[in-house]
Amino acid sequence: MSEFHAPLRVQFETFIDEHRAALAASLDGVTEEQARRSLVPSRTTLLGLVKHVTFVEKVWFDEAVTGRSRAEIGIPATPDESFALDDTDTIASVLLSYRQACEASRSATAPLDLDDLLPGNRRGPLPLRWVYLHVLRELAQHCGHAEILREQML
Predict the structure, then answer these.
(1) Cβ atoms of residues 122 and 63 within 8 Å
(2) What is the pTM assigned to this prediction?
(3) I need a labelling partner for 37 at 20 to 30 A (CA). Which of 27, 60, 86, 120 fits?
(4) For domain 3-153, which architecture applies?
């Protein structure tokens, strides 16, 4: 079976994983200083983007799946805060956290069907299918942001 005829869930997960990998790769070949460099008025940096998408993984595949609060999960209360870097954040530490979050996301969704409702979202229960599409959209947007930041610095 070609990738074009794979089940819908496989297609979603393939595209999500490709974008996850692209965001991680945005840090390839940059220095710690470059990864933290602020090139736009917002908190958006390459390292901050990867830290933010770690937050995204935990919001959509921990909070939404389990109903645990952000405080219980240990993530910021707002998306804007998730871009903030502290002195302990390095390329290696942020990538490790990101990869662990992605693996936890895969594990959390493995037993679910696309039409299963995730109860822990602030909007109310949402089907996994909607969450996959939302996460894919967000990852794609952030891949574009990362490409532009890399173009500005390299």
Answers:
(1) no
(2) 0.94
(3) 60
(4) Up-down Bundle (1.20)
